[in-house]
Write a structure and sequence with these properties.
There is one protein chain. Strands 1, 2, 3, 4, 9, 13, 14 and 15 form an eight-stranded mixed sheet that branches. The protein has 350 residues and is α/β, with parallel strands linked by helices. It has 14 helices and 15 strands. The chain folds into two domains: 249 residues, 3-Layer(aba) Sandwich (Rossmann fold), CATH 3.40.50; 83 residues, no CATH class. The protein is globular.
Length: 350
């Protein structure tokens, strides 16, 4: 998965500056238009006022070519000029092709950009934002058998196929134990060690401020249950997806093994383990809710934004779509327990 997605020469994300949108393989909240960034700007501005720090580090991880950051900055310049002038923008992106386009994408707000690198800044104070980043991190796939936990490996024969073997690390079983997950024989699951490691490291580098993680996923009790017993590993290509582990595999080539580097590979986020990793490093959970309720909370304070684009707003909020499949986890470090506007409508996870 690491090679297929991130190899500098052949990786899916490495070879193009943008993979989402109508001409891409999948659709994100950013593709709806600038409204998503404009709504996020209101929450980020509140964080700025709570922190009372100047300058203010805004770090976007998995920033791509800078589209979301551009929407946020343009809204800040228009609505909250003091906030805009205090921002030091850090864009973290693994793809060199995407990084190369960031200044052009930001255009007239590129003056706020101070950092464009593959890794997080060594230290910062402000807000770390990651929209659909954790789901794109490489995972381990495991399957429970009668004699215990096995890991699924990839083997190259005439074509790529899978074989089962002992777990590559004791961390895999430990991860499930800490999450309170009990897999029944035959169940498959994905374990995202990279996500919890990344969150721990990010929190260590944050001196003071907030972390906002937006992604699709579940609590561990749902993710590692009968409803997802085939796993959640998914591919996207030209807006078509193949999910889970097929009950009957006609071809020995599984969907996520075909056309490496030509399609997205992703899995649902275990928010229970992500939250626990952040809290273990000193953060407090301030909210965990559907994107629908997070954005409605912001709209309570900025209703004129919703009036600008009814169709875009519906796309962001609609149940069964981006609004309910995407969750928002808000965390704070050395900030107390402020009432965030994104949590002002209803804190609910469906």
């Amino acid at each position: 998965m690491t090679l297929a997605l991130y190899d500098p020469e052949f990786g899916y994300y490495a070879r193009a500056s943008q993979r989402s949108g109508r001409a891409g393989d999948f659709f994100t909240s950013v593709d709806v238009g600038p409204l998503f960034g404009e709504l996020l700007e209101y929450q980020l501005h509140q964080c700025f006022e709570l922190l009372q720090t100047h300058p203010y580090d805004l770090v976007e991880a998995g920033a791509g070519n800078g589209r979301l950051a551009g929407d946020i900055l343009r809204a800040a310049r228009r609505e909250h000029r003091l906030f805009y002038e205090g921002i030091r923008l850090h864009l973290v992106e693994a793809s060199a092709a995407a990084r190369a386009e960031q200044r052009a994408t930001l255009n007239k707000v590129a003056d706020r950009l101070v950092f464009s690198e593959p890794s997080l800044p060594e230290t910062f104070e402000g807000v770390l934002l990651a929209n659909e980043l954790l789901d794109a991190m490489p995972v381990h796939q495991v399957v429970m058998r009668e004699d215990g936990l096995r890991e699924v490996y990839i083997e190259a024969r005439e074509e790529l196929t899978t074989v089962e073997g002992p777990p590559s690390s004791p961390r895999l079983k430990d991860y499930l134990d800490r999450a309170g997950a009990t897999l029944e024989p035959g169940w498959r699951a994905e374990i995202n060690l990279a996500a919890v490691d990344w969150v721990r490291e990010a929190v260590r580098r944050l001196r003071r401020g907030f972390v906002i993680l937006i992604d699709y996923g579940h609590e561990a009790s749902e993710l590692y249950s009968a409803s997802h017993s085939s796993g959640t590993l998914t591919t996207f290509h030209r807006h078509r997806s193949v999910e889970g582990f097929p009950r009957a595999v006609v071809s020995p080539v599984l969907p996520w093994l075909g056309h490496p580097g030509e399609q997205d590979i992703t899995s649902h986020v275990d928010f229970t383990s992500v939250r626990a990793a952040a809290e273990a490093e000193g953060m407090q959970t301030l909210g965990f809710l559907d994107q629908t309720y997070f954005l409605l909370g912001i709209l309570n304070r900025s209703a004129r934004l919703g009036a600008r684009s009814t169709s875009a707003l519906k796309t962001l909020l609609v149940p069964g779509g981006l609004g309910s499949t995407h969750k928002v986890l808000l965390l704070g470090k050395n900030v107390g327990r402020p009432d965030l506007i994104g949590c002002s409508f209803r804190v609910r996870v469906t």
